[in-house]
Amino acid sequence: MPGYTTRILTIPVAGHDFRIRALSDLQQFADPTGRARRAGIHSSLWSLFGQVWPAGRVLAETMSTYQVAGKRILELGCGLGLSSLVLARRGADVVASDHHPLAESFLAYNAGLNDLPAIHYRDLPWELPDASLGRFDLIIGSDVLYERGHALQIATMMERHARPSAELLLTDPGRGNVGAFSRAMAAQGYAVDEEYGLFDDEGDAPGRGRLLHYARQAAGAAG
What we know:
Layout: E1 6-13, E2 16-23, H1 35-39, H2 54-63, E3 72-76, H3 82-89, E4 93-98, H4 103-113, E5 120-123, E6 136-142, H5 150-161, E7 162-172, H6 178-186, E8 190-196, E9 210-216
Parallel strand pairs: 3-4, 3-6, 4-5, 6-7
Antiparallel strand pairs: 1-2, 7-9, 8-9
Helix pairs in contact: 2-3, 5-6
């Protein structure tokens, strides 16, 4: 790709190897047409979408066995699309979303690498309403609470796009914003179950990685 160097990773998920095109490293930035500036993405954050992070691997593993039949699914901040690829391989009805200008092209390329059909993609800034997106039975995301304001943005998105019995699954490496988010979700009638110690964040936070499952209290247990 012009301005970037990439590599092909092999990521095993539930006994199947997924091939993923990723950026070669975190020192990648090229913005000749101003797309980064228009998207509001700082150069220091630009390359983060282009890696497979521990939280993303855990979410993909979770999606490899989660009950998804008959559910409409939305992935927030899909990045390179590993979880959406896992879901697509299972035949799930999934919409991948992100706001990074390169996410759509990397997702399409990675679907082709894995002999999968094109995955429905939406450019989805979290702070802007999108009435055309509709509602979902399951919303997922990995490490999406990395800034303080994201808790309110994603909680508001749940109000817009979650069906009454919807579930939300997030993997979080311990950013410190989960408490505020869980309180916002509780105000909408969601209870949370947490599973701890699933992964480290780059080895610096042993045991802090967790899977969060949110469901409305009348909606029943996890899948």
